[in-house]
Amino acid sequence: MELDTVAAALRESWGADTCSPEDVAAWHPGNPARGQCATTAVVMHDYFGGSLVMGEVLVNGARVDFHWWNRLPDGREVDLTIGQFGPHESVVGGTEVERPTGPTRLDAQYALLAARVKARLAESPPT
InterPro entries, alphabetically (predicted)? Predict the structure, then answer.
């Protein structure tokens, strides 16, 4: 599977219903990546493996959230949701973290996003 193909399917699959609950109020079609980082990173991990990376989101020097992205097996870092942040927000750090193995608060959002991506990829002609 090509990275660009999966990335496009992810972007087309984002919605308020796949957003992290604390970001739903800030999510809108003009910023579809808002609140999608954790679920997107885990779906990317499903397709490409590698590592999950977590950094801190800062506003005025104070941590307000965490941000997730991927480090692929070849060492490339892929962050499909970095565009969600405004000029007042910065992402710092980046520590590899284990993929969650038990229930999480984002299970429903992940399941929905993974299913949408799978369906979109099934509709796409092979490259």
Answer: YunG-like (IPR056238)
Segment holding 13, helix H or strand E = helix 3-13
Q: What is the pLDDT of residues 25-55, one digit of tens each?
A: 999 999 999 999 999 999 999 999 999 999 9
Minimal CA–CA distance to 95: which of 62, 61, 57, 56?
56
**Rg of the chain (C-alpha set):** 14
Could you give the percent of the chain with pLDDT greater than 90? 94
Phi-psi region of 49 (alpha: psi -120 to 50; beta: other; left: phi over 0): left
DSSP-derived letter for residue 102 is: S
Q: How many Cβ atoms are within 10 Å of 95's Cβ, its own excluded?
A: 10
SS (H, E, C) 17-82: HHCCHHHHHHCECCECCCCCHHHHHHHHHHHHCCEEEEEEEEECCEEEEEEEEEECCCCCEECCCH
